[in-house]
Amino acid sequence: MAWIGRGIRLIVIFGVLFFAGIFVYKYYPWIFSKRVSGKIVDVQRVTQASAIINSQVTDAQIHSYSVLILGDDGKLYAASSEDRQWQVAAKGYCCEAVFYRYPFWNLEKSGTFYNARLKELRLCPGETKAPEPNAPTMPLPDPLKPQVDAPSEPNK
User: Fold this and answer.
1) CA 20 to 30 Å from 25, out of 10, 102, 123, 152?
2) How far apart are CA 67 and CA 116, in angstroms?
3) 76-81 and 34-45 beta bridge pairing
């Protein structure tokens, strides 16, 4: 009769370990995410505006950003993100962000971050004025200024 109790205990222990392993596998990025607080060094759009206009891109590609933050601990943290909130973030703001880690079984990207989520955007301590917004990636023509065409060769 004691062997039945031991067998049931072993099945329960292995079941709990199995489901715990599945939970860690599925939610690894969330479990081992890193909360970073610091100053934004750079935010760049990954897909350029000309590529968006000229080709078929997905919504995720349109709102894809590369983020670099100087943490309060002095380390630089970089990640890619598809969070639309990064569009308003500019160099010089302070922020709090959550960086999700690639799992260690993804050997090419192990130890790096992705999907940086912007939790809070604020002026840095001691700052009284907001930084300048990000400049457009390509200069836009001034509609009020006449466009000068290159001289053409006369017909022969």
Assistant:
1) 10
2) 8
3) unpaired
Q: Along the chain (156 residues), what's the average pLDDT of each consecutive run of 10 residues? A: 84 95 92 92 76 62 83 91 85 92 88 88 83 56 56 56
Residue written as token pair 């569009």: 87
Distance of CA 114 to the CA centre of its chain: 6
pTM: 0.67
104: buried, middle or exposed (CB in 10 Å: 19+, 13-18, 0-12)? exposed
Amino acid type, 41: V
Within 27-139, residue ranges assigned H as helices are: 28-31, 49-54, 59-62
Measure the CA angle with vertex 54, ends 50 and 55; round to 5°.
Answer: 120
Question: How far apart are the C-alpha atoms of 97 and 114, rounded to whole Å?
Answer: 12
Q: How far is CA 113 from CA 14, 51, 105, 108, 119, in A?
A: 32, 25, 14, 12, 16
Residues contacting 12, CB < 8 A, separation 6+: none
- Cα–Cα distance measured from residue 94 to residue 123, given in angstroms and rounded to the nearest whole number: 6
